[in-house]
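Predict the structure of Succinate dehydrogenase assembly factor 3.
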Amino acid sequence: MAVCAHVSRVRSLYKRILVLHRFLPIELRALGDQYVKDEFRRHKSAGPKEVKSFMTEWENYKNTLQTQVLESAGERYNSAKFGDHLSQKKLNDFQDEQISQLYELMVESTKSKRQFDIQEDRK
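Done. Here is the predicted structure for Succinate dehydrogenase assembly factor 3.
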């Protein structure tokens, strides 16, 4: 029974994050969606300690993004700011692989010419 509750909680968090990504600029949405999918898939077989940390960090991300989406509701689409700074303490807790992923994410999100040319449907 506890396994079902955990799976439901993970699935709910995953879906909520993807819904919140709909409010991001299209390039960030595509990048964020892919990153979330990869990370959740990568942690399917993680141990209990890692799962607890994983869920805590993604819950924090969801809460931060939800707050930023609500705050940006009245702003112009292009002027909204999303994201947050990482503290030195959090960076020190990262493993080498996580630092590498973070760097790749930073590089991709700040490129002037993205890997994919994504265009939003304008109606």
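The CA atoms of residues 28 and 107 lie 12 Å apart.
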